[in-house]
What does this fold into?
Amino acid sequence: GESVGLHLPTLSVQEGDNSIINCAYSNSASDYFIWYKQESGKGPQFIIDIRSNMDKRQGQRVTVLLNKTVKHLSLQIAATQPGDSAVYFCAENVLSGYSTLTFGKGTMLLVSP
Amino acid sequence: DSGVTQTPKHLITATGQRVTLRCSPRSGDLSVYWYQQSLDQGLQFLIQYYNGEERAKGNILERFSAQQFPDLHSELNLSSLELGDSALYFCASNEGDGDIQYFGAGTRLSVL
It folds into this structure.
């Protein structure tokens, strides 16, 4: 399918490497963050989330780190696989208000066998 | 499969025309969100409906409108289409406010 975001920052890694995708968020009031994965021709798929009362959260092969001081999120993918190749978006939200996610521009991850 | 269904998958139309995109949320979800994704703008929030009523509005043009029906499915109406409206349109749903939104596979709109 047609790729999304031809002008996105791109991270190229080898299969088996660990990947780190970074995201700077804009709203200091944001207290909830989500990482989504979007494969070519598909809709965004939830990966992992984190609330602002946490600095770190781990899932299966993925870890999200939150640094509220510098408004920075990162997504770490362990032992990256070719199937991890996709565009990754961070999204932020203020839970006290109505739920309207604000998405970052995205990063394309390319995994070579 | 997220459980969110969007139809049609592809839509090709001409400038000036009007189209309707349809979304069925996950079973039990009351909130439906519409997003536009273009190559140069990323994912842009358009509008949210909750249990039939408009709840939040984003960068939605006046030529665009949406509604949510009693069975909770939603439609996004795009009128007086322009070339620049060509994009992917996504619908997402969740139980209500906060946390994870689950996305459909999208409708690819091509305006020629």
Remarks:
- Residues 20 and 57 of chain B are 18 Å apart (CA to CA).
- The interface with chain A takes residues 2, 4, 31, 33, 37, 39-40, 42-43, 45, 48, 55-56, 58, 88, 90, 92, 94, 96-106, 108 of chain B (CB under 8 Å).
- Chain B has a mean pLDDT of 94.
- The longest strand of chain B covers residues 42-50.
